[in-house]
Amino acid sequence: MNTVDVITRKRDGSTLNAEEIRYMVDGYTAGDIPDYQMSAFLMAVYFQGMNEEETILLTKYMKESGDTVDLSGIQGIKVDKHSTGGVGDKTTLIAGPAAAACGVPVAKMSGRGLGFTGGTIDKLGAIPGFQTAVEEQDFIDQVNEKGIAVIGQTGHIAPADKKIYALRDVTATVDNLSLITSSVMSKKLASGSDAILLDVKCGNGAFMQTKEEAEKLARLMVKIGRAHGKKTMAVISDMNQPLGCAIGNALEVKEAIEVLRGNGPEDISELSAALAGMMAYLGEKAATPEEGIAMAKKKIADGSALQKFRDMVESQGGDPRIIEDTALLPQAEAELAFLADRDGCIEEIHARKMGLASQHTGAGRERKEDEIDLAAGILLYKKVGDFVQKGDVICKIYGKNIKKLEKALEEIKNAVKISENPVNCNSLIHEVIQ
Ligand code: URA
């Protein structure tokens, strides 16, 4: 087979067969197909799309590019959760422990942040001492003993995705339905859990901007999950403003602890409880999603979810004192406040622009080899629908030096709109697909 022929066929809108798709995945993973040809192929897929059959095949070969984790050593129904990526999305740090407190074994492999979106592994990296590189047997033992472990994805799981995702990130080919589906589902199917909960983000801070696109993505991923014998559900949740008030790694850990104490912002508290409850349902600890959500809320209110978070931190070498004293988390050297320039109601806090601003503070990577500043980020003092008076603090920006923060401030000025009239907030959960 010839790589140029496959690229040409996709460029011209043909449907690829199994052999061609496998050739591209295997060839690129093995290093036989260079980045420049894979980039051209991804761009062809981006513009021409792939049909359902092609997407299913792409997912299958990406999954088969590496190992499948055997979690049969963990008792119970293992439920995985995956977000398609957003801004301020720290739900894994809350829903994971809350689901574990409901009795669901949570054996989760997470990723790093990409572009304007954050990643759970970077957030956990803000906890002093916390280890995310854990041997498979230790991972299994920890879930059996403590009910939860969240670790980094090993290179052996869907290595094709690891390589392709890094290339998509720098070739403007991330936000494509077939490419997102194959990326998410290849990893999830290889991660060995029995059930999968997908949080498909929708809005200007998500890869899927409209409800229609998000729904299409969610339905296809659910279909693929089920075709592989996994109980799969999807939530379509709003990402038009950052989730919660914190964006940036240490800031988000602090907010997650507040939510687990029952004191967090309403949106992140509600979504995290909903996700934990659906995990409890998928894990057969609740008869309905609603019963699961009520159970998760109870586990947060009685402190058992926070205890699971503590167990996880301790077991993975992290300093549990951060739970009582969040000042032990990395602290920024410089800060800058963004103030309201008039009276009114907050009409928009554009999630993508806030994500980019957070990246400029140093909280995210501009290039994949960049070191991140764990203390950097943004703390919102106002959310959409809140009233402000001229001079009120809308948000504070944290980082290493004022110069970096000034660049972020420029982005934030474009992200926030104040209206003269009252503004209603979007609903948080648009749809549940089960
Ligand atoms: N999350 C992933 O794992 N892959 C994508 O392509 C997008 C979001």
From TrEMBL:
EC class of the enzyme, as a word: transferase
Entries under PANTHER family matching the protein: THYMIDINE PHOSPHORYLASE
Function: Catalyzes phosphorolysis of the pyrimidine nucleosides uridine, thymidine and 2'-deoxyuridine with the formation of the corresponding pyrimidine base and ribose-1-phosphate.
Alphabetical keyword list: Glycosyltransferase, Transferase
Subunit annotation: Homodimer.
UniProt xrefs under InterPro entries: Glycosyl_Trfase_fam3, Glycosyl_Trfase_fam3_N_dom, Glycosyl_Trfase_fam3_N_dom_sf, Nuc_phospho_transferase, PYNP-like_C_sf, PYNP_C, Pyrmidine_PPas_bac/euk, Thymidine/pyrmidine_PPase
Coiled coil start-end: none
Annotated Gene Ontology cellular component terms: cytosol
Single GO biological process annotation from the record: pyrimidine nucleoside metabolic process
UniProt keyword annotation of Isomerase present: no
Protein name (Swiss-Prot/TrEMBL): Pyrimidine-nucleoside phosphorylase
Catalytic reactions on record: uridine + phosphate = alpha-D-ribose 1-phosphate + uracil; 2'-deoxyuridine + phosphate = 2-deoxy-alpha-D-ribose 1-phosphate + uracil; thymidine + phosphate = 2-deoxy-alpha-D-ribose 1-phosphate + thymine
Pyrimidine nucleoside phosphorylase C-terminal domain mapped to chain residues: 345-419
EC code(s) of this entry: 2.4.2.2
Family under the similarity heading: Belongs to the thymidine/pyrimidine-nucleoside phosphorylase family.
Recorded GO MF terms: 1,4-alpha-oligoglucan phosphorylase activity; thymidine phosphorylase activity
